[in-house]
Design brief:
Length: 131
Amino acid sequence: MKRWVLVLTERGSDREGKRRRIAALLIGLCALVGSWAVGSVLASDPIGYGVPIWPFADRIDRAENALFSQVVPAVRGNLPLNLANVQVLRRTDVYGSEFWTLKLEVDGETRCREVAVGLNVSSRRVSCGSG
């Protein structure tokens, strides 16, 4: 007499679990690398990107942002700057926007910013050697 035994197994369940773990690990790794890349870009010019906060900005970046916030109203109104630690290196009017290159003395360090004044005021860090 022959007996047939039906055995129910889930083939590949271990494979699916392993694939899920590998996928989760890859997603976590990509998120880590992506956040490091974004953080390093933001840390290169935290004031220009609008994030003068820790962990992107250090103490001097925050002091530069405080000084820059005093400069913005004068730049917006095209007024002379009456701050001892700010020097205007260059002013240019191009395509209806005004560009100022400023030399800032912040906590014993010299930093330069190019400020674009149009509808909004934006800035970027530039080399001080050009002025």
